[in-house]
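Moderator note: this is an archived Q&A kept for reference. The question asked for a predicted structure of one protein chain; the sequence and the answer are reproduced below.
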Amino acid sequence: MKTEREKMLAGELYDALDPELVQARERARDLCQDLNATREREQDTRRQILNKLLGSGGDSVWLQPPFFCDYGSNIYLGERVYFNFNCVVLDVCEVRIGDYSFFGPAVQIYAATHPMQAELRRTQEFGKPVSIGSDVWVGGGAIICPGVSIGSGTVIGAGSVVTKDIPENVFAAGNPCRIMRELNTGEKETGSR
């Protein structure tokens, strides 16, 4: 028989009040609180906390506190991922982010979701994994919904709500987020969008 943690990671209905899961969330929240209390000059302390908190990538992530997550251990980062101030990752399922991806302030990544049936919502929840490629830039205040995949090289406009998969090398924005145009890797930056 599967544990509640195994069900959660598999994207199945699970009981979030299971003692093992409660303890894991408390651990993550304590680590986030420790991280968020650090000062800018305490980079070594931040690095130690991030290595304990994250599933991978704590050794090279650049993160501006405050930062919040459910478990941390289900967040897998590539090289030199950047999170600006006040980002939230609800990692009840795996959240995988590729190398050199950037997240503006107040970006929220949700792997957590809830059943549509009210009676089930009282005792059960579930999640869907989120996958974000390499060299992705997500503008401030964007929300990445459960189960979404964003392709490498893509730019997501500020304030967007990403409800469906977005392919690689496009600029996408809006609510709901939609593709605005393809990105030409040879184009020069003009500073306008």
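Archived answer notes: The two ends are 52 Å apart (CA to CA).
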